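User: what does the whole thing look like in 3D?
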Amino acid sequence: METLDENAGVISASKVTGTNVYNTEGDLLGEIHDVMLDKRSGRIAYAIMSFGGFLGIGEQYHPLPWATLKYDTRQGGYVVGLTREQLQGAPTFALTDSPAWGDRAYETRIHDYYKTAPYWGV
Amino acid sequence: METLDENAGVISASKVTGTNVYNTEGDLLGEIHDVMLDKRSGRIAYAIMSFGGFLGIGEQYHPLPWATLKYDTRQGGYVVGLTREQLQGAPTFALTDSPAWGDRAYETRIHDYYKTAPYWGV
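Assistant: Here's the predicted 3D structure for the full assembly of 244 residues, as structure tokens:
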């Protein structure tokens, strides 16, 4: 787990990766596995949160719209306003899956689930 | 060096990292070391291109505004419209430096050098 400098609005993708994700109750939900970037618009699309599994085996991934993540200096990680139960129904994929990045129908379902505005505008 | 899927507008930061950067003459300039993200605006700020050095020792870094990079499928890497000579005068830092990310004066100098619009808008 990395500890980010909370004052830096501009942070490196390599530091975001590995940061823990908690919910507002303080439960550890997972950690950031990667960050998805939209080349054309220049926008950060998703943080990919890994959860479950052990040493990478059986891990699953939730694509979290970037706007859902708030950095919490006290926790030293990101906080999302989701219970474990809410996450259980959230879009997920396995390492062997190829999510349909760039497919607006697929991506709209992600944003609808989290009730966030799509990063590509509407 | 990674080969990116040119059809995917949405790509992972971990795949961008390690991708070669060429100029329009086909000269290898360096490779992407990391990606800088602006947390607040949700925008991709810079690709950090490493160059020089050997096995990480003596390496230097150029922050390239994200908009300067075009992916070229033929080259299997990013192409920037800069000669080696133009890059020699470009903003650079060493691994031991702490660039003033988020400092608009510092960042404006980077964007001015590359004649790109600042990612934070004007």
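In plain terms: The mean pLDDT of chain B is 89. Residues 70 and 79 of chain B are 5 Å apart (CA to CA).
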